[in-house]
Amino acid sequence: MKNKRKFNFSGAIAIVIAVLLLLVLVPINMAVSYFDKSFDMTAKSTYEFTDTTMQLLEETKNEQIDIYFLYPMDLLRQDPSCLALYYQLNQFDKRDNITLHEVDIDAEPQIESIINPSGTVSLKQGDIVVKHDSLVKHISRSRIFPYKYADADQTNQMTSYAGEELLAGAIKIVTGGSLPTIYFMTGHGEPALDNEYSTVVKMFKQDNYDVKTLDLASEASVPADASIVLLAGPTEDITSDEADKLLDYASNGGNISMLIPPCEKEGRFTNIEKVLEKYEIGLDYNIITETAPVRMMTNRNSEQDASVFNITFVAATDSFTVDLTSEILSQVDSLNGIADGISNTRSLYRTNTSDSAFLEKSALITNTLSADYTYTTKSTPCGGNAETAGDASKLDNLALELAFYAYNKSNGSKLVVFGTDDIIRDPALFSTSLAQTQFLTTITWMYNSDVNMDIGNKDTVYDYLTFRNAEEATSVMNKFIIAPIVIAVFGAIVWLRRRHS
Length: 501
Hints:
This protein has 14 helices and 21 strands. The protein is α+β, with helices and mostly antiparallel strands. It has three domains: 126 residues, 3-Layer(aba) Sandwich (Glutaredoxin), CATH 3.40.30; 266 residues, Rossmann fold; 31 residues, no CATH class. Helix 9 runs parallel beside helix 10. It is elongated.
């Protein structure tokens, strides 16, 4: 019987094959390492730019853009969870019109005058600043990699990458020519911005809003670049002409925010009421205090004060399109239900209790219901006239609304009104004020300083196995780890014994 020829791969042929593989694979590996070439194999193409970003970069190719990254790129590359940012920053840097700067803010303090000219932003390691001409957009590191819960029990967190959305939006803003502007109205006894409102002004600027003052009486209309007009702490009424200008601004989709604290001045704020009436909201001329010591809080002198009291945030309902309180309520829950407080406030009311077809409105903050389902606040007349004093005297121990939002669906205008300005006054009444957070939430709702690029966040997805118990885990390990090792060892033994056959 004729013997069949067998190939013995343990000899010369095996050596030749190994050498050929080395000759092919080693140069490829060296080339890839030299050119720093990588391939995005992630499910959502996390490392690559979306078509939206590529289109934006094409549209802005003639604009000189500087990106300042406040962290060493080498260290960023060593963190696997940050590779998406590392590769995308490098892609930006490869553009002819974009320059990436690595900045050590502690070692290079002089750079802050370039990337933080107003001095209002608290820069931290890992932050990013996008600059074009004199416009600067700050991106906080915490927003680049936000966390979200991966399961319903909120026990496992997963990292989401928002860097492309934020960087593309920042480029669009700074190359667009201006930041969204918040105008504080003046001329009605309002506090000076650099005195009693300096902290909230700094917060606005940190969130990339420009802040200006507005003497509307001397202007033909609300400035065209006004994103929000804010009337805070007036001690006198606005004029009828100013009210008409505000309403004209609102009819074109404008946003108005009012913080109207109690005022002892006699007479009604007729023209402020005129603006509020368009949104079916009215002012009470009173100051609200708490009669139950358990719901009183301490004032700025650390003294228990009846004018500083617990409040309740109103949960949004499914019938509304706007939800401004869910995040606040989740913070209340995290504090084991401890309520926040408010101070020096008047109450507000609905002038039309039935919602109009085109107008959505809801209270944001109310006084707090006691355990025995009663209200214990007192309403003391303040300012106004005899008629408003009579109305205010009837509000003791009743449910009261202390802040409202309203949204006109027909023209897109938005209005927010609080019965106090203490939530934005210096110094802060509380170290952490949810009422102030609620106010800032309404600002973002009225006009978000971030441009929505519709890129969204890219979640980091990990493959994982879930086992019911330790025995099941051991069984799987035996099948997928130990068994292959045993087979490999057995195969090696067989090969050793038969290699010369």
